[in-house]
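Supplementary Note 2. Why include the ligand at all?

Several targets in our set were suspected to adopt different conformations when bound, so apo predictions alone were not considered sufficient. For every target with a known small-molecule partner we therefore ran a joint prediction. The input for iron/sulfur cluster is given below.
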Amino acid sequence: MIITEQKAFAELLSLLERHQSVFVVGCGVCATTWRTGGEPEVKALLSELSAAGKQSTGWTITAEACCDARLTRRILKQSSTALKITDAIVVMACGAGTQTVASLVELPVYPGLNTIGLSQIQSLSLALERCRLCGDCMLAETAGICPVARCPKGLMNGPCGGYQDGKCEVDRTQDCAWVLIYERLQTLGQEARLAIISEPKDWSRMRSPRVADKKAAQLAAKE
Ligand code: SF4
Ligand code: SF4
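The joint prediction is reproduced in token form.
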């Protein structure tokens, strides 16, 4: 899940300084589940904005993910009357959702949330980053534990010399990712994998902007 956190209200208010009427868009998937951009949070933000002297022209929550341009276009169309009298839109979704809304309207669009990471949900108040979207997944070699996301140095071979009692030298409250990898490989009877030195990662796969074009990929595979 994409994890987001609310922007400080004072920061948001300063972004909206030059605007009087505001419309708020929430996301029906990640931000709803993580409770940063679902209906209760959208309504709470509207109350705060109203108390700060802003006028609300309305709100909506995308039925699906806000980053799905096809569906968000339809949802925004349903609010077209309200948007005609709107000065600015605040989006309570991840950065991709916010940019999707911005690409569909001729209005200033502001992020109501900060995007934190792609994470595993432990509880509704604890999410742990698990993937940095490297584009070349190596979980098969690391017993399903990602060193890109879980080792602060992103080491492809480890552990480094700094680990102590299984903890990471960068943050002693965190487990060393490579100790976890070793222990899990051992449990799986695959510790021999550690003798294989991983080559440096091809970071060019992370070069932005990345485009996922399934049709082009299928055509290329046929050639
Ligand atoms: S190796 Fe790359 S794709 Fe796989 S989980 Fe880690 S960051 Fe994500
Ligand atoms: S102690 Fe472990 S997790 Fe921390 S930087 Fe070194 S190898 Fe990475």
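The radius of gyration is 22 Å. The chain has two domains: 2-117, 136-206. Comparable summaries for the other entries are listed in the accompanying table.
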